[in-house]
Amino acid sequence: MLKENVDVLIIGAGPSGCVAAGYLHKNNASIKVVEKSLFPRFVIGESLIPRSMEHYEEAGLLDSLKEKNFEKKFGARFIRGEEVCLFDFSDKFSEGWDWTWQVPRADFDNTLAQEIVRKGVDVEFETEVLDVKFEGTNSKTLVKDKDGNLKEISAKFIIDSSGYGRVLPRILKLDAPSSIPENSSMFAHVKDVNRPEGREGTLISFDILETKVWLWVIPFSDGNTSIGVVGPTSYINSLSEDKTEALKSVIQKSDFYRDRFEGVDFLFEPHKIENYSCSVTQLCGPGFTLTGNSSEFLDPVFSSGVCFATESGMLSAKLFLRELNGEKVDWDKEYTEYMRRGVNVFATYVKEWYTGNLQTLFFHRPENPDVKRKICAVLAGYVWDEENPFVKKHDNVIRNMAHILNNEKSAQ
Ligand code: FAD
């Protein structure tokens, strides 16, 4: 069997793996990426948030993305019947990027992967991790390429960025139930032939059909648009078994988008993902970290998935590089505690979305510009800024404020 030796093995060439690879390569670490699929490959997760731009920049990958002219995203619009709440990332509490992109992920991820290959990173596509054995922090990983050849890769460290492949959580039995209610989704792309001219046509929107059921509309710069529905698994499973009919029936329920997508065919049969939220018992261990969806995925509602994937990929890379250079790293504090802090903030926002409390704040009129700027910073991904009371006191501020607003309304 072939054998190979590297400092860091990265499993998966999604955004998380590519950002980690870009940063480590830039800092001269010996690395290898193994990726099960042949790129481009389809994956969902098309609405980015501004914080992730910092990661592409630090990994040296931003310029390659800029060249692609993806649709720019300057904020997000939430719709509930006739009510509209528009967030503008340039008007947010925390410092940081005020725009990002909405992207077809096949193209976006392929751009990242091809850029790390161009820079000289050794990426083996169509090569799947079958097994991993640890001896202390050192590991031996068994991989199989598309022709069935086996290889053993020895590494000082593994960054598991395998997304829903969840390689190490499966092998090391680290799966844990999510704290988020069981939701499912169905989605497809359309050629957006009725797209209105100007800003309306390219605006990303989340249309609330019922408190727990919402539709996403994500226009891309190539003229196609992604449409998806999210709701409790029982709701999604109550729709027609014919996925095309099911998604069309949900679009019909949207007063805002019904006409735009009337009679427009899907470019592929809608995909359905059931009970997508997942978690793990630990985020790292001797000789490895779990990043992105290989660790925790909450919910699509605030588009945090890719940002957490790149945040955790980048942090893993930075911390391991320090260790490689002889520094002591406190992984529990510097990795687990840090990541959990950010995830917990978003988890509260997701939960409060589905209780309806956050929707109460979004659609309350007149708007409170100060509250809006603070929530906007969270939606942009700045969930570690403890100066922001909507970060620091996340576990009760939304609930308390919604309670006051609801009481005021019923007293009127
Ligand atoms: P991925 O992008 O999934 O990459 C993992 C890679 O690992 C894959 O290429 C895979 O082929 C490879 N791999 C798997 N197993 C192996 C193996 N055994 N060996 C080698 N390679 C392997 N996020 C957002 O930010 N915005 C959104 O709008 C959004 N919408 C979503 C909607 C839905 C319905 C769902 C379910 C998720 C959504 N997400 C969204 C989340 C987003 O999809 C993920 O958070 C993001 O793709 C995670 O990136 P990643 O790099 O961790 O994993």
UniProtKB/TrEMBL annotation:
Record flagged with keyword Oxidoreductase: yes
Q: Name one GO molecular function term.
A: oxidoreductase activity
* Oxidoreductase found in the keyword field: yes
Name any one Pfam family assigned in the record: FAD_binding_3
Question: Record's SUPFAM superfamilies?
Answer: FAD/NAD(P)-binding domain (SSF51905)
Enzyme class per UniProt: oxidoreductase
User: Which InterPro entries does the record cross-reference, listed alphabetically?
Assistant: FAD-bd, FAD/NAD-bd_sf, Flavin-dep_Halogenase_NPB
**Keywords, in A-Z order:** Oxidoreductase
Positions of the FAD-binding domain:
6-165
Q: Where are the transmembrane segments?
A: none
What EC identifiers does the entry list? Answer: 1.-.-.-
- Record's signal peptide: none
Which PANTHER family does this UniProt record tie to the protein? FAD-BINDING PROTEIN, SLR1998 PROTEIN
Q: What's this protein's name? A: NAD(P)/FAD-dependent oxidoreductase
Species assigned in the record: Flavobacterium qiangtangense
